[in-house]
Amino acid sequence: MYAQFFGGFLLGKNAVTPEQLTSAISKLSDTHIKLGTLAMHKGYMTASEVDEVCFLQTREDKRFGEIALERCYLFEDQLEDLLVSQNPDYLLLGQTLVDMGAINNADLESLMVEYQSENEIDDFATAREDANTSIRLIENFFEDSGIHANEYALDYLNLMFNNLVRFIGEDFTPLQPSPARSYNVSYCVMQRLTGVARFTCGLDMEPNIAVSFASRYAKMDFDAFDEYVKASLEDFLNLHNGLFSVNMSNNHSVELNLAPPAQEEGPVIELNDTGFIIPVLYPFGTIYMILEF
Description:
Elements (H helix, E strand, L loop, with lengths): L1 H11 L5 H14 L3 H7 L5 H10 L7 H7 L5 H10 L3 H12 L4 H15 L11 H12 L8 H17 L5 E2 L3 E2 L2 E3 L2 E9 L3 E7 L1 H12 L8 H26 L3 E3 L3 E3 L3 E3 L5 E7 L2 E8 L1
Antiparallel strand pairs: 1-9, 2-9, 3-8, 4-5, 4-6, 4-7, 5-10, 9-10
């Protein structure tokens, strides 16, 4: 998630405009080749094997390469070769912004050094993302917001951002979170998790943005805001929270119960004193994550 949070960092420094970032990150999705596609191209995996790994990612919170190794579809040296072949997202994003004339190379160099320092990244060119790095990025993301995100909240958001990458697309930028006790909704789907720990998560967006979001998730071209679009949003949220519940059970021995996802009628919803909103900027529009912990 280096590229996604690096984009937010650039916005926070007023180094680029939201329009410039959206344009650059759109190009990023066009140029970044998925690991499964590379594996087929190199003859390491068949199409059916790639499809199976992608399906298993809806059941397990694991990276493509992890599952492929477990299933013996890839060997360690093949995975290493594929990872080296992938152009790092954050470098592509920076180079795209330079090519657009939004920043120059000197700007990019100084911004990357500052970002590396803030997030304790030793070497952008060789660093591999892992769970600890991702959590640290999210902790720093909250630092200036005045919001305390506990261990469970950080795990939840780490999984949410990873699931957005896996199932919707990596061409997004999370914007600064803000505390909220109430929120005006457009079309909002929410789901509550109860048990030893309690969580509420909602996704709110304009209907036309919901059509684009659902089209990406379902891998179908929806052209109207209808019951299929609504069901796709509910399914994404339920899938995410199901994976999170499994992680909580496996990693923390905490059992959670999931209520069915449901539309929030609004127009205003009330949140408790832990509530906050995270806008997530995609090329097709902005979605809003609504969370309570």
